[in-house]
Amino acid sequence: MSAHAAAPAPWIAAQRTQLLAQRGHAWLLHGPSGLGQFALALELVRAWLCEAPAGDGAACGQCASCHAIDVHTHADLCVLMPEQDMLAQGWPLPEKAQTEIDEKKRKPSAEIRVEAMRDAVEFAQRTSARGRGKAVLVYPAEQMNHVTANALLKTLEEPPGDVRFVLASEAAHQLLPTIRSRCLGHAMDWPGAQPMQAWLAAQGVPGPAAEAWLRAAGGRPHDALHLARSGLAPQAWAQFPKALLQGTPAMLAEARPAQAITALQKLCHDLMACSVGAAPRYFAAADLPPAPPLAALARWSRALMQAARTAEHPYNTGLLLEALVAQARNVLHSATAIPPARS
Ligand SMILES: [Zn+2]
Question: Which pTM value belongs to this model?
Answer without folding.
Answer: 0.85
